[in-house]
Each structure stands twice: as C-alpha cells, then as structure tokens.
Amino acid sequence: MGRTPFAAVRDLRLPDGTCVPTLTEALELVARRRAFLVTEVEPEAGGAAGARTARLLAGLLHARRLHRPDADRVSTTSFDLRTAAALAGCGSVSGALVVAPHVDPDVAARRARDRGLTDVHLHPVHVRRDHDVVRRVRRLGVQVAVGVVNDPEEARLMARLGVDMVCTDDPVGLAHRRRSPVLGGGQPR
C-alpha cells in the first residue's frame, strides 16, 4: 500500500484540469447529480488498516445521513468479508462483498448473505466461465454486480444475464461507445 502524502495527491490534475477530489467532495458531486457511488475499503486482507478505514467510512456516511437524509446513493464494498460485514447498513444503497477471481462465487455469495450483505460484486471471469452463476447468486436473495467492465459488448452480455449493476472505470466512455452507431446501442441504462 502506497503512502502518498495528501498534499501530493491534491496537486495531481484529472484530465479536465480539476484536482483529485476527497471522498466528501466526491460524495457531494454524486449527490448533486443523483448518481450512484461504490466505495471500496482496502486492503484486501482486512486487518487493522481495513478496520480503521471501515470505521472512518461508516462514521462519514452516518454523519451525512443525519444531516442530509436521502442525499447519498452509496454502496460500501470490500474484498474482506469481515470488513464488508462491518460496513453492512452504512451505505445508503447496499453493502457488498467483492469476490476475487480465484474465489468460488457461490460460496462467497452464501457467506455474504449470512453476514447481512445485500450484494456481491463478481469479477467478469466468474460470469465468463459460468453464465448461470448470476441466476444462482440472485436465487440466494443477493444482488449481483460485475466489474470492472469497460467493453460495451461485455456490458450488454452482463445485462442479458441479469446482473443488477455493471461497474466500470470509464462510465462516460462506456456510455458513449454504447450510443455509437457502430455498436448499434441506444441510450445508456
């Protein structure tokens, strides 16, 4: 895990010239646009750093809910089941376990559900290997997100298979490519 000073991160510029936002600034932007934000608590292994980060995130989201009910649409996630379960109920939309490619998605989904989580975020490789995994996980009463998906064709496949959410690193680019006449897509969902 890198230790870049906050000031150095704030000096970085995004492609549009703005600085890298803090989580609070990102939450404000997302709330103004009524968009949806997925947070992820790392490190994957959990431990003291993961627990501390989860407490800080939970506190921030709780304070925001007290002052601005219904402003945020946030899903809290982690690769670590204990950390993800500690955040269950802190997000305004869902709490999710992110399932690494080498982990059995059916076992992970049952464990997530049993710990009070509402979603699992599968890796695209899970779905590519076994299209039926989405149906099985949803039958457990758990919603399914898949990510990271940046290819429009793969996003369409995930939608056809019934995933509840596709996570992408490039929402603008994916939406733009989905609308292009070459791909034959309509408006983004």
Looking at this protein, list some descriptive labels:
phosphoric diester hydrolase activity; 2 domains; 46% helix; 189 residues; alpha/beta; TIM Barrel; Glycerophosphoryl diester phosphodiesterase family protein; disordered C terminus; GP_PDE_dom; PLC-like_Pdiesterase_TIM-brl; single chain
Notes on the protein architecture:
This protein is an alpha/beta fold. The protein folds into 2 domains: 79 residues, no CATH class; 91 residues, TIM Barrel (Alpha-Beta Barrel). Helix content is 46%, strand content 14%. The chain contains 9 helices and 6 strands. A 6-stranded parallel beta sheet has the order 1-2-3-4-5-6. Helix 5 links the parallel strand 3 and strand 4. Helix 3 runs parallel beside helix 4. It is globular and about 45 Å long. It starts with 5 loop residues before the first helix and ends in a 10-residue tail after the last helix. The C terminus is likely disordered. This is Glycerophosphoryl diester phosphodiesterase family protein. GO terms for molecular function: phosphoric diester hydrolase activity. InterPro entries: GP_PDE_dom, PLC-like_Pdiesterase_TIM-brl.
